[in-house]
Amino acid sequence: MSPKVDEKIGHVGEILTERQKKRGILIQALHEIQKEHNYLPEDVLRRLSKELGIPLSEVYSTASFYKQFYFNPRGRNIVRVCTGTACHVRGAAKVLERLEEAFNIKDGETTPDLSMTLETVGCIGCCGLAPVATVNEEVVGEVDAKKIEEIIETVKGNGAG
Amino acid sequence: MERLNTINELKALRERLKVEALRPDRPRARVCCGTACVASGSKRLVERFRDEASKAGVDLEIVKTGCQGFCQKGPVLRVEPANIFYQRTKPSDVPHILNYTILGNTPYRMSLYRDSILTEPIPVIDDIPYYKKQLRIALRNNGSIDPRNINHYIAVGGYSAIEKALATMSPDQVLEEVKKANLRGRGGAGFPAGRKWEHTKKAPGRIKLVLANGDEGDPGAFMDRAIMEGDPHSLLEGMMLCAYAIGAQYGIIYVRHEYPLAVENLSIAIKQAEELGLLGKNILGTDFSFTIDIREGAGAFVCGESTALVASVEGERGFPRPRPPRLSEPGGGPWGYPSNLNNIETYACVPPIIEKGADWFLSIGTKNSPGTKVFALTGKVKNTGLVEVPMGITLREIIFDIGGGIIGGKKFKAVQTGGPSGGCIPEEYLDMPVDFDSLTSVGSMMGSGGMVVMDEDTCMVDVAKFFLSFTQSESCGKCPPCRIGTYHMLEILNRITSGKGEDGDIERLEELGRKIIKGSLCGLGNSAPNPVLTTIRYFREEYEEHIYDKYCRAKVCSGLGVFRIDHEECFLCGLCKQACAFGAVKELRDRFYIDQDYCTKCKACYMACPIGAVKIEKQKREKVPASGTRQG
Known about the structure:
With 161 residues, chain A is of the alpha+beta class. Chain A folds into 2 domains: 2-65; 77-160, Glutaredoxin, CATH 3.40.30. Chain A has helices at 2-9, 18-24, 26-37, 42-52, 56-65, 85-89, 92-103, 145-160; strands at residues 77-82, 116-121, 133-135, 138-140. Chain A has a 4-stranded mixed sheet, covered by helices on one side. In chain A, a hairpin with a 2-residue loop joins β3 and β4 (138-140). In chain B, the strands form 5 sheets. Chain B has a 5-stranded mixed sheet. Chain B has a 4-stranded mixed sheet with strand order 2-1-3-4, covered by helices on one side.
């Protein structure tokens, strides 16, 4: 376990105690778990808590503080609508509304068949192309009525397959 | 890559790369591969260029650069040696560009930039109004080099500042130079970087850290992302200079998780610098040792606050901590080590200062705010993107000369600077020179440099509500003034925008705002009420209209106003009647009208009308129930 911790903490590990190192990689470890399972399953968190020697309550406290960690399974497709300032003044609310309507879920929810999760995000730094949405990792800029329908098509296509 | 063991080896490498890399005679396409241009399809463009060039047998060098700034017109690219700028390029334009520009050295007209369809196209980048007034220091290499190739950075003069510092300057001299240049923190508050460095340097303790704040959470700002993605080495060099000046050994860059490309490019840059021996032990054979690690956030706006960032680096909840101890003092930084924290853009400004001297930097900008600032110009302007301008430029120049004015010829209403911590600046201050102090004096702040332009179709109360709902949901919950106060303010704003505003609400907002500012622990709470307070200060009449007239002049808020069909304009299509879910649109033999008794002011008819014949009007200012005003 220890060499793995050292590798993750990086150079700064030289000046840290074992306990500080283990705590220091907690967020990275959570990111990795989420990457693998696409959410944070309870049993894996229990294992992590044992390995790092951090009480489960503390692990949960940290994980629940950050918005990007999820405790429930997420959809195969993740659509994020940017609701940053620039997108807001250029009509992000309407984009979100249309997507909510199309998939019959609200912001932050997942369709029952786990085909898609709809989320909002503070800002993805593409304000020049507002309003923006991301489909999985791909950024779609200047979303208009036509592009929304395209997004819906893509997601429905992916979700089935 | 071979490790460089002396300063002279770095010098020799640079001389060699100047000739070999980015040769001036070789045809070259610098294609923007920043996030925005990738979203508009620049990856396909690169592929097409590669295919077409090999088909035509041209030795074309394709440089995948970072953000070139003109995101609105993406994908953008520059073709050299003719130095012609193309925008909104499609893969089908590539063969033409190859034929005309690379083989024929003439511009390909169809993809050139035009101000409007009536004006002549502009082939050269420096003549385009968007770029004309810009001066690039922090973004100096953005858009011209490949961020994943350290050779490019060295060839354009990179790492020559650290070379100069290691060869000819003592740490104190570096510190003095930065202090003299009066480089102010680009992250928002504008605290002089040199003074911060000095505090950290003076702090007792052998081990010190250099932290870079890349948790760019402000919605509407993306300059740090552009630097981390497009010119990561300039950030590394800036941090190295800081470490050298203050005697630090370890560096940490804290990056938002929402910026995966930034993390990737930074990791590559660090790896390359380590291989060359520019990071690590005994850099260039001197006794200066410095390493850099990356830490990713996980989506918390408050982690951009210094003490919360420290907590997050340590792997804790991102709760701010009371100060003192400051970060620069023992016990303040991560794991208690004294640390210097600056914004990404601040570090990127350091190498040119060391290279060209403080006097050069002082000659740019205003007396109290020298240098340049990168703004993310967005919102209802024609040209959006990243602009770097000298301090002291007026807002009018930024919005109208560089930004090209408001979309659709609408009227300018306000510009919001500083993100959720800043405020809205009305038209009367458009000619004010922009620097740290002037923006603060009108109740806003520089912030990280987001600049969102709003036109007459934007409701200021709605904007204030938007920002407050952002800070309210991002409030970490540690201290009650921020947690409970913002909640209450938001409740009042929700009431106002849904037509249930009461007399005294404005005063309540002001009082709550003042108390939140005073009582909160960290910068988030200290500035959260700013958008509300400035909009009340400059647009009080809009609040009053919402409360007393139940009317939203921008027609954004639903549930306000009196709906009426203009019979002069109406051409009897009947869409409004179809749209109304409440049967409030009634049909007579020759006209439609809205029955106010049934109308819920949902705006469905207003949105449905294809010619704008449904009007939203002010309610009469009298104490009658809303349903009492009957109109035909």
